[in-house]
Design brief:
It is found in: Endomembrane system. This is Longin domain-containing protein. It holds the Pfam family Longin. The chain has a single domain, classed as Beta-Lactamase. The protein is 59% helix and 20% strand. It contains four helices and five strands, in the order ββαβββααα. Helix 2 crosses helix 4. The longest helix is centred in the C-terminal third of the chain and has 39 residues. The protein is elongated and about 75 Å long. The termini are far apart.
Length: 189
């Protein structure tokens, strides 16, 4: 199988795909949407393998980001890609989506619901036109700059490791101070 790299990507709200991009033909979108409907709603990262491809999902605050990758790409490039897309998506649309959710009235009548559906459909269409090319740019960047992707991943892992060590060290320090206070009866030593 030839190495295609990153094949298909989308950004979705719940089970509604808002923007997508692919440069290849195939049933990737159909399989991805089927997987999307079976995903748990809690935030996290999930990977499914099928026919030499990995379907990598990142769920965050009700938004789902997916990239279908050739298995030969590994796991690090798709995960870094998803993080980049999530950050870019939140930076571009986070405030407007938060405002739209605040304006939703659960007691709206049917006409208002129809108008709301039309508004959301047009927003999703607009997002696909605007963010689809952004997905393409991120896919191309991740495939043409693998060293930068690995460096970002190493930096992120190093920071997580440092954070864990600092938390453990802080907890040990607190235990030592509490023992010292208990043994000395306060600050009387």
């Amino acid at each position: 199988m030839s190495q295609k790299g990153l094949i298909y990507s989308f950004a979705a709200k719940g089970t509604v795909v808002l923007a997508e991009h692919t440069s290849y033909s195939g049933n990737f979108s159909t399989i991805a949407v089927q997987c999307l409907q079976k995903l748990p709603s809690n935030s996290g990262k999930y990977t499914y393998s099928c026919d030499g491809h990995t379907f990598n999902f990142l769920i965050d605050s009700g938004f789902v980001f997916l990239v279908v990758a050739d298995e030969s790409v590994g796991r690090s490039v798709p995960l870094v890609f998803l993080e980049r897309v999530k950050e870019d998506f939140k930076k571009r649309y986070g405030a407007s989506i938060a405002n739209a959710e605040k304006e939703t009235d659960p007691l709206a009548d049917d006409d208002e619901i129809d108008d709301l559906f039309e508004d959301r459909f047009s927003i999703a269409y607009k997002l696909d036109r605007e963010f689809g090319p952004v997905l393409k740019e991120h896919m191309q960047y991740c495939m043409t700059h693998p060293e930068e992707i690995r460096r970002q991943l190493r930096r992120k892992m190093w920071l997580q490791n440092l954070q864990m060590k600092l938390m453990v060290g802080g907890a040990i320090l607190v235990v030592i101070i509490l023992l010292w206070l208990f043994v000395c009866g306060g600050f009387k030593c």
